[in-house]
Amino acid sequence: MIEVQSLTQQFGETTAVDTVSLTINDGEFVLITGPNGSGKTTLVRHFNGLRTPTSGTVQVNAMPVSEDVVAARTAVGMVFQHPQDGFVAATIGADVAFGPENLGLSHDEINRRVTNALAAVNLSDREPDRIDSLSGGEMARVGIAGALAMEPDHLVLDEPFTGLDEPARQSVLEHLKTLSERGTSVIVVTHDLRDLIDCCDRVIAMNAGAVAIDCPSTDARDALSDAAVYVPPVSEPEGESEPESL
Ligand SMILES: Nc1ncnc2c1ncn2[C@@H]1O[C@H](COP(=O)(O)OP(=O)(O)OP(=O)(O)O)[C@@H](O)[C@H]1O
């Protein structure tokens, strides 16, 4: 469980996160949406201690993040945009294996995790390929695979679908649904609600650092439409979405 209590993050005059309290239960699939600059990324960076709160607390699995950042980083996997900044190895296979290797797992277990993670992002059998030969979308998929291979209790993905083609998007989405059904909390920060809204359990919309909407996914279309957030229909082709506003 991730519990956020009265979390505030100030950057100079800017209040990026404003007194946010929320709980994310094990196995919940949560979308966090909202306009640019509404505080989504700053909020989720607190889930594994990448930021220090101005005030308030975050607890992961009942342990304050500030008291055990290592435990929080083990429990909460993060996938950010620009994964190339975090690559540590020359090939896809070596990079995805790097995290599990550091957990001291057996060779067979590492292989199992790498194989599953690469299958989830449609990169099966690409272990030997050099990272520096990949396209942007392929790099994004390797970044996701690296986090999946860690099999964290909670998985946070910030705009994970940017640059992914539709088969890769569907494959990752299916994998995230399965993870959540098996008890992993999945938290996706996105502007691209499309079919995600029908796959998740809950939608949180932020505005000006605060939680503006927090509702079950079944109520989300009405709630977001009342708040003037544009939700494209499921069948709408890519590229025809209008920007959302809140
Ligand atoms: N390191 C920082 N230093 C100063 N201001 C920051 C920093 N990080 C974020 N901010 C500010 O905090 C506010 C919230 O930013 P944040 O990136 O959390 O929003 P977001 O909802 O994730 O936006 P986007 O949809 O554009 O990714 C913005 O006004 C941003 O400029």
Automatic annotation (TrEMBL):
Function: Probably part of an ABC transporter complex. Responsible for energy coupling to the transport system.
Highest taxon of source: Archaea
Keyword annotations from UniProtKB, A to Z: ATP-binding, Membrane, Nucleotide-binding, Transport
Species: Natronocalculus amylovorans
Compartments, as annotated in UniProt: Cell membrane
An MF annotation (GO) of this entry: ATP binding
Main location (coarse class): membrane
Identification of the protein by name: Energy-coupling factor ABC transporter ATP-binding protein
Gene Ontology CC: one annotated term: ATP-binding cassette (ABC) transporter complex
CDD domains: ABC_cobalt_CbiO_domain1
Gene3D superfamilies: P-loop containing nucleotide triphosphate hydrolases
TM spans (from-to): none
Membrane topology: Peripheral membrane protein
SUPFAM superfamilies, alphabetized: P-loop containing nucleoside triphosphate hydrolases (SSF52540)
Family statement drawn from the similarity comment of this UniProt entry: Belongs to the ABC transporter superfamily.
Pfam families named in the record: ABC_tran
Domain ABC transporter: 2-233
